[in-house]
Amino acid sequence: MIKEFKDFIAKGNVMDMAVGIIIGAAFTAIVASLVGDLINPLIGLFTGGVDFTNNYAVLAGDVAEGSSLEAAREAGASVFAYGAFIMAIVNFLIIAWVVFILVKTVNRVKESAETEAEAPAAEEPKGPTQEELLAEIRDALKAQAS
Question: How would you classify the pairing of strands 78-80 and 57-60?
C-alpha cells in the first residue's frame, strides 16, 4: 500500500496540481490586493466614493439609526445585508476582468514565443542545380576544345 501511495504522489499530474494550487493561492492574494488597493479606490474616485457595504435592512432587532452593518450585527440584530452582496458582486466582476486581462496577456506572450520558435530561419540562397552545373562544365569543355 505504501508503494502505491508513493507511486500516486510521484505522478507528474499530482505534483503539477499541487504547484498549481500553491501558485493559485499566492496569485489570489496578488489579485485581491490589486483590486482592493488599486482598482477599487480609482473606481471610488470616479463614482464619488460610493460604497454599498453598509446598506442593509433590519429584519428583527433594535439598531440605532445610521449604524454600520458591523455595529448592527454586533447588536444582535437580524439584518438583510444587500449592500455587502452588491459590493461582493462588483468585486467579483472586477476580479474576473483583471484575471481575464492577465490570462489574455499571458496567452499573447506565449503565442508570440511559440511563433518565434516555429519561424523558419532565413533561407540561405540556394546554389545552382545539378543540371546548371553540368551545363557550365559542358560549356567550359566546349570552350577549351575550340
Answer: antiparallel
Tell whether the model's pLDDT for residue 30 goes beyond 80. Answer: yes
For residue 12, pLDDT beyond 80:
no
Q: What pLDDT shows up at residue 21?
A: 87
Task: Read off the DSSP letter of residue 65.
Answer: T
Whole-number average pLDDT of the chain: 80
Nearest residue to 31 via CA among 104, 89, 100, 88: 100
The DSSP code for 11 is S
Report how far residue 71's alpha carbon sits from residue 86's, in angstroms, rounded to the nearest whole number: 19
d(CA 53, CA 75): 17
Could you give the C-alpha distances from 54 to 51, 62, 65, 66, 69, in angstroms and in order? 7, 16, 12, 9, 5
- Assessment of whether the complete model's pTM goes beyond 0.70: no
Q: Angle 12-33/2-10 helices, nearest 10 degrees?
A: 50
Backbone angles phi, psi at 59, to 5 degrees: -90, -40
The pLDDT, as a whole number, for residue 120 is 65
